[in-house]
Amino acid sequence: MTEHHRRRPSALRRARTLPPWSLLAAGVVTGGLAGGAYGALTPPEYTATAYVVAVPTEKSDPASALGFAQAYGRVATQLAVLGDAESAAGVPARTLQRHVTTATSPDAPMVSVTATAPRAALAAAMANAVSRSLTEHALSTRKTTNVELQQFARAVEPTDPSSPSPALTSLVGASAGGLLGGLAVLVRPRRERETPGAPTAVPAPAARDDVLHGAL
Questions:
Q1: Do 72 and 149 form a contact (C-beta atoms < 8 A)?
Q2: Mean pLDDT in runs of 10 for the chain (216 residues)?
Q3: Cα distance between residue 92 and residue 156, in whole Å
Q4: Is the four-CA dihedral 38, 39, 41, 43 of positive or negative sign?
């Protein structure tokens, strides 16, 4: 090994000499840049929600309507229902199945149909198409269930995207980067007090006059 390689400090030794705040600052800056880039490059998504309510007929009661609302909420995203909605939504049934979700309440016979899409108008169209198809499906079985679904509220076009903005993703990324930088500060090797391999200092020999003076 040449003298140049012996004198060149290793990467581990250089890391030990860095001040603790540098790792924390590097993590914050890197995380913020990565989060901002993710938010800027990711296409925005819009969310729209429609609501339908289960109504009992004269041969049924509110308890039955509540139970059937739960059942309709589970079948709303099945292909049997979505197949009738794809023409009105303008997207294939498989796309509706991936981007449409439903939710029900244990206290009210209501079903919410939520759709997400890269355009606000498309999200509203998808939610309305699925809710309309679900009400028609319930209408075809009304004589058997004694419960029908009625539209409670149509989905409207959202004005703002539901996906996080670049500013928010940048803030989240900076927070995560700062956390990782703090962990790196905690686990990094501490700076050694003495450099390994350094020659041990030897006291210089006393001058001859001092030795003679002490002997007298």
A1: yes
A2: 50 57 64 60 81 88 87 88 87 91 90 92 93 89 86 90 60 67 64 50 54 49
A3: 21
A4: positive
